[in-house]
Design goal:
Elements lengths: L9 E6 L5 H13 L3 E6 L9 H8 L17 H7 L3 E7 L1 H9 L5 H7 L5 E5 L3 H5 L1 H12 L3 E2 L3 E4 L5 E5 L3 H12 L8 E6 L4 E2 L5 E2 L6 H12 L3 E6 L11 E4 L3 H11 L5 E4 L6 E3 L20 E3 L3 H6 L6 E7 L4 H12 L3 E5 L1 H4 L4 E8 L2 E9 H15 L8
Parallel strand pairs: 1-2, 1-3, 3-4, 4-5, 8-11, 8-13, 11-12, 13-16, 16-17
Antiparallel strand pairs: 6-7, 9-10, 14-15, 17-18, 18-19
Length: 404
């Protein structure tokens, strides 16, 4: 299914030599599925790790490997291939190729194409940790950034050589997210966004607890959309099994109190706070330190509940609060309860939905409550809806400079 960021984009995907070439097969699949066209250009070294036939099958286009390819009528592949491109992405980008780019070398088709381009260039480094840490490599990367080239990654972790450290290429999904982010309008550039997502879990004993069916999908989609809009994003997540969106700082918590504490530590430094998490209203007072046993003839256990802190209201009450956005998941009478909650929490914008009907689903529809009235957004998948909500939030931001 096409995505808004990449639909209709034409990418030149340059591959240099390295074991990480295997990741580019999946990356190509993701890009084409998102609606982009992908023109693969490979160095001779890259063909030693994965074949042009494989990349042609995945991209649906002939692969170019030589400056002297006779398929180009004017024999100027280095000119013709780049002129239609919205961007050139080099993945994997080897140590050698980074050095070529930094010094303007043009001794094969891919390097010449990069020097002759008139479109953006993104590189995705992949190399051994010592090669990445080498002072020459670091000087080259600094120069590339100074030249306006986007450097995506690298990641840290186990490497093909058996060592562990920085230099590992981003996984295909993360690379895809980074490319999509590059093409997104930066309507939140310079802004800091703090948001919560998922459920909380309130223990009864070491193995049992009270929670809810929130999947965290909406909150994670908003984190992704905010990051792609140029924001610095801090995501405070309850217990969910979701991948962290590319470029987002994630802090995992379990209980409502832990989520409250994490939010309050950072709220003063945020421009925007979005409270998406389904936070438990109550917790058990003095949860059992041992598992509560079921014993024949024994009376049923009883619990005393105490109220959890109200995260949204706490942020709104700060002396200089960020632009505060709340979420309300109601089981009925949404228009009545949504506006009542907005006023009671004293927030400028509250987003309401019929939560029990959408928990765990991939789509949703919402109503925006504010002092000026009500705005309805049509049902859409949660990522599309998240992008629309970020546009709505950005439109309502006060005309002030971002917090530094």
């Amino acid at each position: 299914m096409a995505t808004a960021e990449l639909a209709g984009k034409h990418l030149v995907l340059g591959m240099t030599g390295g074991i990480a070439c295997y990741k580019i097969a999946e990356l190509t699949r993701l890009l084409t599925k998102a609606g982009a066209t992908v023109q693969v250009v490979m160095t001779e070294a890259a063909t030693q790790f994965i074949t042009p036939v494989t990349m042609q099958a995945l991209s649906g286009r002939p692969v170019f490997t030589s400056q002297w390819d006779a398929r180009v009528p004017n024999n100027m592949a280095h000119i013709d291939l780049s002129r239609e491109a919205d961007a050139i992405v080099i993945a994997p980008a080897s140590t050698d190729f980074l050095a070529k780019l930094a010094h303007g070398m043009a001794d094969d088709l891919l390097s010449t194409l990069c020097v002759a381009r008139d479109c953006p260039l993104l590189v995705v480094p992949a190399m051994n940790r010592q090669m990445w840490q080498n002072p020459a490599t670091q000087r080259n990367v600094t120069q590339l950034r100074a030249d306006g080239i986007d450097v995506l990654g690298p990641d840290s972790g186990p490497q093909a050589c058996g060592e562990v450290g920085d230099g590992r290429m981003l996984e295909a999904a993360a690379t895809f997210e980074a490319i999509a982010s590059f093409f997104s309008p930066k309507i939140l550039s310079g802004r800091r966004v703090l948001l919560t997502a998922g459920p909380t879990f309130e223990p009864l004993d070491p193995v049992r607890g009270i929670t809810n069916r929130s999947s965290g999908k909406m909150g994670f989609a908003l984190a992704r959309a905010a990051q792609q809009a140029g924001a610095e994003v801090h995501l405070v997540a309850g217990p969910v099994a979701l991948e962290t969106p590319w470029g987002v700082f994630r802090e995992d918590v379990q209980t409502a109190q832990q989520m409250h504490d994490a939010v309050m530590r950072s709220a003063a430094h945020a421009d925007i706070f979005i409270g998406v998490a389904a936070v438990a209203d109550w917790r058990v007072d003095h949860a059992s330190e041992q598992k509560i046993k079921k014993t024949a003839g024994r009376a049923l256990p009883t619990f005393t509940f105490v109220e959890n802190p109200d995260i949204l209201a706490s942020v709104a009450k700060l002396p200089h609060p960020p632009f505060t956005v709340g979420f309300a998941a109601e089981s009925g009478d949404l228009e009545v309860h949504g506006e009542e909650k907005r006023v009671r929490k004293n927030v400028p914008l509250l987003i309401g939905n019929l939560g029990p009907l959408t928990f765990g689903m991939d789509d949703n529809e919402v109503i925006l409550f504010e002092a000026a009235g009500v705005t309805r957004l049509p049902r859409a998948d949660k990522q599309t809806l998240a992008r629309a909500l970020i546009v709505e939030i950005a439109r309502r931001l006060p005309d002030t400079d971002p917090i530094r």
